[in-house]
TrEMBL record:
It comes from the Eukaryota. This is Alpha-1,6-mannosyl-glycoprotein 2-beta-N-acetylglucosaminyltransferase. It is an enzyme of class 2 (transferase). One of its GO terms (biological process) is protein N-linked glycosylation. Disulfide bonds join 186-197, 268-271, 319-423. It is a single-pass type II membrane protein. Mn(2+) binds at residues 246, 354. Keywords: Disulfide bond, Glycoprotein, Glycosyltransferase, Golgi apparatus, Manganese, Membrane, Metal-binding, Signal-anchor, Transferase, Transmembrane, Transmembrane helix. GO terms for cellular component: Golgi membrane; Golgi stack. It is found in: Golgi apparatus membrane. Pfam families: MGAT2.
Length: 438
């Protein structure tokens, strides 16, 4: 009995010791994991950020080695003081937080990307000020570099939260070297072997024009920055609306867009986006009693993070296509690579119009601005002031439409290997910085 009692006592003691050791081990592991997670909080952020996506999209990201920014070796141009100052501005919080302290739960972020056409910008800003619901959301204005006149217009906005971001690698920020103009650069159709100049010509034998390539660079930098780089939006899972400085926005645009986003999974589950305007920029809509599904347009288009991830995975296709236009690049090579039609859903009456008559980098001056008689004559009827989309409408699908498609070679202007590499670096810059703890 004594022996048995001693054995039982010994066993209980061992059990207690084992329990204590187990508790100590669990506590140590808990502390270790807590420290690890605090030091690598970007992991939590990344998991949260992409939990909204489908399993398929997450698997592709892992297979493509994008997750946690494991693609390294960025070779961005060495920044000057001007470029660094723009980066600092990009980290500033939105203005008007005292007037609009909270965003609506279902808000659609609006991104307005601009160059240097102040007369255009005044018109789009004025139209936005009249949009119903604009005070519920965040307006991000993305500048292709820094221009004081454009900056002052945006600083005068009081109708919503507004944040400015400035492309720090814009050509005019680098006046003496790439991505601006370098003294050793080839020009026009120079033979780089004979002239011993720097540059790779496009498919038509033309060398890069910094003012032209900045269009595509700015769009791509902006997309990567808004979706993956800004504190205010990198956790945003809903749609983001993209407009330009020569788009007039109707008063009902925001409410109509909210309706389209809500109807899209029910009425057009295969649609990638929601648009405020027809893909034909000259059209004002059909005026039907139905929704319309067609190819993605470039006026007032919106999509969510899942679609952005699909676009981002096509960075190599986007950056290597020889066309300086971002939209033509998307239509001719990125969208066709998705493996099926890329439809967008819109209403039968436009809620945004393109009023610019000049291309990029034209119309900057007050007298030379490309607007009829210095003003924009956009007819805004009563139907354009209130939501005019009905939830019981059917969807008419345009199965075949004119426009740029797979197989189009591009208009050129994007042949320089330096531009292509900078473009790829933009696609990876936020992933690389996160993995390095920057």
């Amino acid at each position: 009995m004594l022996y048995r009692h001693m054995v039982l006592t010994y066993r209980k003691s061992r059990v207690k010791d084992a329990d204590v050791r187990r508790l100590v081990l669990i506590a140590v592991l808990g502390v270790f994991l807590l420290v690890l997670l605090l030091r690598t909080n970007t992991i939590i952020e990344l998991v949260t950020r992409y939990s909204y996506e489908t399993n398929e999209s997450l698997e592709v990201r892992i297979n493509d080695n994008y997750t946690l920014g494991v693609k390294m070796g960025l070779n961005l141009p060495k920044q000057n003081e001007f470029s660094i100052s723009l980066e600092r501005r990009n980290r500033m919080p939105p203005r008007n937080l005292d007037l609009y302290p909270k965003l609506a739960k279902d808000h659609v972020v609006i991104v307005l990307y601009v160059h240097n056409r102040p007369q255009y910008l005044r018109i789009v800003v004025d139209s936005l000020s009249r949009v119903s619901g604009i005070g519920e959301t965040l307006l991000i204005v993305s500048h292709d570099g820094f221009f004081e006149g454009m900056n002052k217009i945006v600083e005068g906005i009081k109708f919503c939260q507004v944040k400015q971001i400035f492309a720090p690698y814009s050509p005019h920020v680098f006046p003496n070297g790439f991505p601006g103009v370098s003294p050793s650069d080839c020009k026009e159709k120079d033979d780089h072997v004979k002239m011993k100049c720097e540059g790779t010509p496009d498919q038509y034998g033309n060398h890069r024009s910094p003012k032209i390539v900045s269009l595509k660079h700015h769009w791509w930098w902006m997309m990567n920055t808004v979706w993956d780089g800004l504190k205010e939006t990198k956790g945003h899972f809903g749609h983001i609306l993209f407009i330009e400085e020569d788009h007039f926005i109707y008063p009902n645009a925001y409410r109509n867009l909210q309706l389209l986003i809500d109807l899209k999974p029910k009425k057009c589950p295969d649609c990638y986006a929601a648009n405020l305007a027809p893909s034909d920029v000259k059209s004002r809509g059909e005026g039907w009693e139905s929704l319309v599904a067609e190819r993605m347009g470039n006026v007032g288009y919106s999509f969510n993070r899942t679609v952005w991830r699909k676009i981002h995975r096509k960075a190599r296709e986007f950056c290597s296509f020889d066309d300086y236009n971002w939209d033509i690049t998307m239509w001719a090579t990125v969208y066709p690579s998705f493996g099926g039609p890329v439809y967008t859903l819109r209403g039968p009456r436009t809620s945004a119009v393109h009023f610019g008559k000049c291309g990029l980098h034209q119309g900057q001056g007050e007298k030379s601005a490309c607007i009829d008689n210095g003003v924009v004559n956009v007819e805004v009827g009563d139907a354009d002031k209130v939501p005019n989309i009905k939830s019981d409408w059917e969807v008419y699908v345009y199965n075949r439409q004119d426009g740029y498609k797979a197989g189009f070679r591009g208009w050129g202007g994007w042949g320089d290997i330096r531009d292509r590499q900078l473009c790829l670096n933009f696609a990876n810059m936020y992933w690389a910085s996160e993995s390095q703890g920057v």
